[in-house]
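User: I'm putting together notes for a lab meeting next week and I want to include a structural view of one of the chains we've been expressing. I don't have a solved structure, so I'd like a prediction I can at least talk through. The sequence is below, exactly as it appears in our construct file.
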Amino acid sequence: MHGRKLLTSLALGAATVVSAQNWTATDIDGVEHSIADYVADGKTVLVDLSAHWCGPCWAWHGTGIMEKMYEEFGPEGTNDLMVFFIDGSQNTTQTVQSTMALLEGATGSQGDWTAGTEYPIIGPNGEGVSVANQYDFPGYPTLFLHCPGSPNGVEIDRTSTWRQFYTSWRNACPSSFTNGVVDATLFNSEDPLYCPDDEVTVELHNQGTGNLTSATVTLMQGGTEVSTVEWTGNLARWASADITFPGITVAGPTEYNAIISSPNGGLDEHPEGDEQHYELDVAPTAALATVNFELRTDQYANEITWKLFNPNGQVVAQDPAGNYANNTTYNYWWNLDPSVCYKLEVYDSYGDGIFSPGFYKVKSGGATLIQGGSHGSVGREKFSTGLLVSVEENALEAGLSVFPNPTAGILNINLELPGAASVEYTVHDILGKVVLQRTAGGNQGSQQVSLDMSGLANGSYVLNVVADGMSASRLVNLSK
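Assistant: Thanks for the context. Below is the predicted structure for the 480-residue chain, given as structure tokens.
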């Protein structure tokens, strides 16, 4: 078992654990919920048993999978599912019972559990403990699934992606989705950032028991029809198709609604989910074509990999062979094509992202374009590069020299600066790990600085010099 799959649960009290759960509890907004009412109404109920102090719970929460399930299949989606976050922590010698302050990130909590959480949260005033006591579970976090009509909760595994979770749910509770032969729906965008020339695309999904062969999909902005696509194809149950609206691109923050009509030439037997709201934006643009990728690993660094793709889907950079070291910062500098939109994917093989204080950042010209870490199995990011390397950058590149090379320890660096600037000198080993760093002020014109590399092991290193958004690199060999 993976070391963070389950955090050993503390005693839940003397309450008797029964085979069925029939709880009623009040959430943090004062709304009362009865699980018996939900399952009697034909809904699946998904219960996330967690604790505010639990690191693995926070990592799972940060993947956004529960939010996505609630968005697509909850009351504002297809209305097939209810999701509950249960903070079951109680007062013991090691833990504190859930309070509103702790749920909002007070000392002793992993963070603000309420931020961005649209589904009900149950915890304070003993409500979470009362619910948790009805379940027999090995530790936090544990998920339970209640199928329609059943008071019996069945433990369900966490997954790397929301689509895998969706598959697990419908396999466990097929009656949740038997809403009609013709049942089309729209999913929200998994990537709301668009490259400048990308056309707006939405995902049509078939939840019906029969094949979906045609539909009208209309894109609306406010009350205005922007574009309509008459789609034809052959989608089996659970299959999806991308619907692209020709000529419709995103130049900035834009909101659309997409609407399905006339599925298979008739009426949708379950129209919930036929309309979807989209909030889209254009990918950030770097100041320069030189881009810095900074990666801070967590205690599970061997799970982390990454790739950078150009618009043709070709890999132009990726993690070096071998595992990263735990809790270590790595920096990479990419000299990319100007005015091109790239896609970065950061992977976690276990599926729970990079634990804080780990992170990844994409920076250029001193500005941070992208940062993330809590991404589940994969974090997808897009960004466009700036213009061609400027005259000032060419001056830095042309004027940089190092000697002696190979060096026995002291490395002298000559450079030309077009203007006064703070200069950062960074030495990386062949795996990209920062092994030496120094920052010093620099005046306009020629200057020389020295770095003492005698404390490093013999081998090859990369020196990177950054000044006011300019970047240049040299390969350095150390032989003592």
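A couple of points you could mention at the meeting. Confidence is low (pLDDT under 50) at residues 1-18, 388-393. Residues 308 and 314 are 8 Å apart (CA to CA).

User: Perfect, that's what I needed.
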